[in-house]
protein-disulfide reductase
Amino acid sequence: MERVNIRELLGPTILTRLPEQAEPSHIDTETLEGKYVGLLFSRAFVPTCFRFAPKLKDVYDKQRESGTSFEVVLIPLDSSQESCDEQYSTMPWSCLPWGSPEIQSLKKQFAVTTPPVLVMISPDGHILSRDARLGVKDTPKDFPWKSVEAAVLSSYSFPPLRYYQNLTPGMKTKLKNAFMFIVPFLVMAFNWYYGAYS
């Protein structure tokens, strides 16, 4: 699985809500290290984003109540500070400041076209899923929703790859590289379809 550095992804600081303060405060991104992190790409006034956020909040609250180190970071795709503030006012988690240069690089890195998109990252920095929305909606108990593509590459029992063990090391490498090359395009197509017809 691909591994990332959370500080390099998000920059030095994020906004978060502290219990004793009414307004969000800037904190060091390093506070996310060692936690499950969900990067929520979302935009205000988009119906699918509006419907998804409460479902994610339910999972977020239950995981934290059970003692799981889990934090969500809103990656705002809003066109203005005002709409970003309105969206974030309904959310209990952290937020990348609106207008941060990291937003565009994150959109490109994770091939985000149609929000919402939820990227799940493990405590050791591995990308578990590039879009865990269906996990949140359909199988919340399966947190942290290891991605289908990761499961395929870690299991030889997947039917289309039943002859995987018989391949040479070079062929295995080529197969993995080809598979991971097409995954971002499949994610983009899924995001477009899901956003258009949900």
